Amino acid sequence: MIHRVSFVAGAASLLAALPLVARTETAEPARESSPSPAASASPAPKPKKNPHVAGANDVVTLPENRHIEWTMEVLDGPEFRLSAYRGKVVFVNIFATWCGPCRVEQPDVVAFANAHADDTVVIGVDVKEEDNVVRAYRKRYDIPYPIAMDRYDTRVRGIYREGRMVFPTTIVFKPDGTLSSAWKGNRNRAWFEYERKAALGESTD
Predict the structure, then answer these.
(1) Exposed, middle or buried: residue 178 (CB in 10 Å: 0-12, 13-18, 19+)?
(2) Given the residues 8, 62, 102, 199, the one annotated as active site
(3) What CATH number does the domain containing 67 carry?
(4) Closest residue by Cα to residue 174 from 144, 145, 196
(5) Residue 62 included in any domain
(6) Does this model's pTM top 0.85?
(7) Domain count across the chain
(8) Could you report the per-residue pLDDT of 118-162, keeping only the tens digit for each?
(9) Catalytic residue at 65?
(10) Is 33 a residue of the active site?
């Protein structure tokens, strides 16, 4: 039976399994924050803080500077383990097949995943739906990446601030396994490309 989704934060500690999502809502578009101008020309400018990082916009409760282990049983496939993809950027896209914004976003997620198969991993996380429903959705959009299943709505809720679930939500991990960014609501291909570069430490100008 496919139902387990769990996080472990830190190298030596195991966290309790996190609850998954019961409530859904449509997120307001995330707002970009502008960097403050440098006080003078002499000091080196401070790096811009990614406006989507958890803690900056209160999307998720995952720690920003600790290695995170995430294991998931997936639909029609082997277990997904985040640590197996060290050296690659990992995008976790939480969705539901009935979600309108998810369907709008889905072609861009697929195109993005296909364009960066060498250095980027994408995994979907479906919430509380039947396997055959998700299989049909996967076929409709020709999704090439694994989809984790939580049919019982018991594990993911705990990663959200105040337990407020939003479809879609995307969480990005850096190649070293630490959190890079997180945002609520559907985004386009350019947004995904920006976050990939940020996670790789490349210029986003």
Answers:
(1) middle
(2) 102
(3) 3.40.30.10
(4) 196
(5) yes
(6) no
(7) 1
(8) 999 999 999 889 999 999 999 999 999 999 997 776 667 778 877
(9) no
(10) no
